[in-house]
Amino acid sequence: MYETPSNWRSIWQIVNSFVPYAVLWYLMLHTIQQSYWHTLPFAILAGLFTIRLFIVLHDCSHRSFFKSHAANEVLGFIAGVLTLTPFQQWRWEHAQHHGTAGNLDRRGTGDIWTLTVQEYIASSRWKRFAYRLARNPVILFLVAPLFLFVVWHRFPLPKAGRRETESVYLTNLAIVGMATGLSLLFGFKAYLLIQLTIIAVASSLGVWLFYVQHQFEGVYWQRHEDWDYATAALRGSSFYKLPQLLNWFSGSIGFHHIHHLSSRIPNYNLRKCHHAEPMMQTVKPVTLVASFKSFTFRLWDEQRCKLVGFEILKTLRRQPRTAPDV
Predict the structure, then answer these.
(1) Which domain holds residue 145?
(2) Counting Cβ atoms within 10 Å, is residue 243 exposed (0-12), middle (13-18) or buried (19+)?
(3) Which end of the chain is more exposed for a tag (fewer CB within 10 A), N or C?
């Protein structure tokens, strides 16, 4: 019932997402002639619409946006070009994320680097430094997202197949064509400023959404032998209860527990499913204010089964060592 796409609703989402995005570029074309500061508000708004375009790509990757496989492929590629994301490679990586979320023994693909307390303690000094740097909020939510979409997505992943690798090159080629055309209209410097602003806004907010969806108080993580897919979906993916406007821009992705339970549900059916199914009402929501606590999470404490900050390391150092048994 909820997994069946509605073509008219999908088409309407294309209209209310892609058309405003195009209009914003038209407005930026005219305001950039005055100054970048006149264009900045439109670029920020275009960044919010870019998140919405990414949700379309996301649904197409799960083949849940249209009933037609070909339609999902074509629209996913177009949305990928506009969001600087190679559709086929991202779909392959994201599918691995869905199959491993909350599984401590299968971390490392399509997720955010997370170490356990003991793994961090056992790490080399260099690895600890790299990990602290990667988990620094400025790096994690500002620098890394921009690097991910502008640079990282331009190269095939080492384990990617031929189809995924080709998608990277085709997407890059299309991006060069798009950038060339817009540079002729705006001028290269102006286009670069606008595009970087849009991607900076979209990528930072997008990574934050993804982070909160899997790094929140009470989140579920287990070793492989104890890991359960349904439990990982309902307890390892958050119900991020956002204000209505933010929920609209993010394509209801805050109902992430439902999405992980069934990735074939289109984004426009997630809210309906949540309110109609009694089981979903038992999932504790993470509010916008409460989500800011996630800034403090750095490591997974296996003994306490919870995310903790680096301050746990000071506590462990103060604990007396237990004498070995004779």
Answers:
(1) 7-316
(2) exposed
(3) C
